[in-house]
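Input structure tokens:
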């Protein structure tokens, strides 16, 4: 019985890795499309978001089977309940990536490029998502806590982007029309960082039984 349970837990880990990879693809695809002014790439972002939604439903069913068909001990219950919380945040990461893609369509259609600061912020947000999922799979408490601390880095990048937008408008008033879209993309990236932090906090809970609250 326990061997079967452990096998299903391993499947849960694999499915979470796949869901995390889809989140990375979605965010990366939206930003790459902006970098290359390639609207066709955005189609993949929307497809990834749909796959993330399906993956959330699949993992939710797997977690329910683990709870109902097996006899999990307290530690197992924390792992399963944490996974259920994590997939909610991961699904929202997919939604945020899709929102970025919607705005990217407008910017690409008007030939508006993103700054190096935006690219750096996007890389940091993707790293947070990757590390948060890795910390769950590896049960790496130190990595989870690093993700939680790293949220301040992404928040700082958001402050930088606000300054960049102000400077952009000062240099070229015609860019005012697109400044809100650029700022919203930065806000979505900041929210992705928040969701990655939430995931890491649930990892901390699954390992220790306590959860810090940083955001």
């Amino acid at each position: 019985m326990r061997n079967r349970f452990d096998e299903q837990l391993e499947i849960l880990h694999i499915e979470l890795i796949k869901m995390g990879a889809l989140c990375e693809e979605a965010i990366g695809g939206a930003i790459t499309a902006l970098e290359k002014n390639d609207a066709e790439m955005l189609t993949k972002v929307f497809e990834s978001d749909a796959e993330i939604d399906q993956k959330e439903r699949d993992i939710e069913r797997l977690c329910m089977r683990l709870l109902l068909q097996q006899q999990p001990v307290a530690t197992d219950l924390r792992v399963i309940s944490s996974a259920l919380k994590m997939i909610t945040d991961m699904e929202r990461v997919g939604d945020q990536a899709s929102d970025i893609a919607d705005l990217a369509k407008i910017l690409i259609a008007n030939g508006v490029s993103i700054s190096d600061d935006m690219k750096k912020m996007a890389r940091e947000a993707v790293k947070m998502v990757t590390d948060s999922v890795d910390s769950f799979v590896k049960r790496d408490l130190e990595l989870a806590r690093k993700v939680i601390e790293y949220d301040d880095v992404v928040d700082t990048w958001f402050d930088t982007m606000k300054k960049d937008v102000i400077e952009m408008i000062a240099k070229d008033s015609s860019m005012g029309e697109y400044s809100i879209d650029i700022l919203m993309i930065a806000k979505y990236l900041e929210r992705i960082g928040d969701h990655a932090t939430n995931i890491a906090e649930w990892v901390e809970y699954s390992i220790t039984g306590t959860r810090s609250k940083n955001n």
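Residues 74-109 form the longest helix (36 residues). The mean pLDDT is 89.
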